[in-house]
Write a structure and sequence with these properties.
By secondary structure, the chain is of the alpha+beta class. It is 25% helix and 19% strand. The protein has nine helices and 14 strands. Helix 3 packs across helix 5.
């Protein structure tokens, strides 16, 4: 009998083809329940938005004040933007442009890279394998950079030209930023600077890219580009669309639309970091809205533990007053949930809490 993750339960319909078909109403599969529908975007909240932190370049020799701002953002928001991060802005812009060009290629060209739910690697349009599940208004391309044995540039797009070379260069720089941030996150927890990196597998961490494409939508008030979820991995580095807002972060009972800053990355804490920090750091629900007038492209880089390593609260952060909040689990076991169920708020990490 075939494993349920070997195939999609229904034929895949790519959202860009729906968007360009001239429909004026979205199919019912994309319509969200009333409580999950977004309010029309009416502008940015100028008084409440995620922190913006200047990293002062690529050296990583950041001041105590910078470390403090990162610590506060990880504990209070789970999200922050970074500028002067050391990644070449020209490469960032070129990556966005190349991926936009890819998603505009004919469907028969992109179909050569169609994915399956076992690895998600390649071109796809859905998360989760539950038959009849509600769908999100987006297409994507998922690929592995680390560990090395999973990296296969032949599975990366050969079009547009020089795309593979650009992915390699961009990945090297973003992974370097991740490794510098891991040291800061360790230090801010009172741990040795290499603690989290080693807990994640040292040189065998996982690093993967998901390029997201959110086509124009005739009824953006009824659907989402990506449903509410927290990221299952360790750390996410998002290169947003500079011109089209879309990412919303939950703050209390409100959804805050993030205002992208030119040449900045948006950094967010994942579930594995929440577990390892024993909830000193918080992964936070977020979602993506779409609009009727403009398409949107973003690039999410996920920095994750090696799949077979047990992730649990650091012993140094477990005390009588603060016992271990989560049961040990490998990342391979953990991410099977979202690959099966799709994005579902914070339900997964909450289910991992230790019984009392």
């Amino acid at each position: 009998m075939s494993n349920s993750l070997d195939y999609w339960p229904e034929p895949i319909v790519h959202v860009r083809s729906l968007s360009e078909s001239g429909i004026t109403q979205i199919p019912s599969r994309y319509v969200k329940p009333l409580p999950d529908r977004p309010e029309p975007f009416s502008g940015f909240d100028l008084e409440l938005n995620i922190p913006v932190i200047d990293l002062g370049g690529a050296s990583g020799g950041w001041s105590k004040a910078t470390l403090g701002r990162i610590s506060e953002a990880c504990r209070d928001w789970g999200f922050f933007q970074v500028v002067n991060h050391g990644v070449d802005p020209g490469i960032m812009r070129e990556m966005r442009a190349k991926w936009r060009e890819f998603f505009h290629l004919p469907e028969e060209v992109k179909a050569e890279y169609s994915n399956n739910p076992c690895t998600y690697e390649g071109y796809g349009s859905r998360l989760g394998v539950e038959k009849g599940a509600a769908l999100d208004w987006s297409d994507y391309y998922f690929l592995h950079y680390l560990p090395h044995f999973l990296r296969d540039p032949m599975k990366w797009p050969s079009q547009p030209s020089l795309c593979r070379e650009l992915i390699m260069e961009y990945s090297e720089q973003v992974v370097g930023l991740c490794s510098r941030l891991m040291k800061v996150l360790s230090i801010n927890l009172g741990l040795p600077e290499d603690y989290i990196q080693e807990a994640f597998g040292s040189g065998d961490v996982g690093a993967c890219l998901r390029a997201n494409f959110y086509p124009k939508c005739p009824q953006p008030d009824l659907t989402l580009g990506l449903s509410s979820h927290s990221d299952p991995g360790g750390l996410t580095i998002l290169l947003p669309d500079e011109n089209v807002p879309g990412l919303q972060v939950r703050k209390g009972d409100r959804w805050i639309t993030v205002k992208p800053i030119p040449d900045a990355f948006i950094v967010n804490i994942g579930d594995q970091m929440q577990v390892l920090s024993n909830a000193h750091y918080k992964s936070v629900e977020h979602r993506v809205i779409v609009n009727s007038g403009k398409e949107r492209v973003s690039l999410a880089y996920f920095y994750n533990p090696r799949g077979d390593i047990l992730i649990k609260p650091a012993e140094e952060l477990v005390t009588g007053d603060q016992p271990a909040l989560y049961q040990p689990m490998t990342f391979n076991e953990y991410r099977l949930y979202i690959r099966t169920k799709g994005p579902r708020g914070k339900s997964q990490v909450e289910a991992l809490k230790s019984p009392r």
